[in-house]
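Sample A.
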Amino acid sequence: MNQYETVFILTPVLSDDQTKETAEKFKKVLTDKGAEIINEEAWGLKKMAYAIQKKSTGFYFLVEFKAEPEVIKTLETAFRRDEKVIRFQTVKLDKYAVEYAEKRRNKLGAKSEEA
């Protein structure tokens, strides 16, 4: 199994419930195919560097997971079929990126415990 990280942007016209429901749908696609979700983050509504489909903001989500390479094709097909998704990118993490992701998660975990 390889470790991957995917970031996807949802259209800004969705309600909070719709964004959570859509993110859950994509996590379910992963878990149904045997992927193990390591971390997920909802970054919220952010301004994009340039307009996409005449929209200048979008809801950003990050999901880290371990999966077989065939799962990526299924996930990206699901992204393409959903009109709520503006953009997506999936990256295979090498050993250095995995270490960095773990440090980042630990740092974020420490921040949330302080709050």
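Sample B, a different protein:
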Amino acid sequence: MQQNAYIQDASGAITRYFSKASLPSQQATLGEIALDILRDGRSLSRKAICTKLLHRMERASDPQEERHYHDLIGLLFER
């Protein structure tokens, strides 16, 4: 019973996170990341999203791209 409540809460948290992404580019990036995670056969979670964002931020080719990923990571940890 407790596990179901946790799974529903985690799903709700991810849904709220995706809804915070207001710019089309933010939504597109999150969609790409979600697809990458799911294609890898992994569960979609905050940890998985954060890990992908951090990897992309490390490989960013310019400051604007790095800021884009930084902003998305910031949304992930807002309450």
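Observation for Sample B: The radius of gyration is 13 Å.
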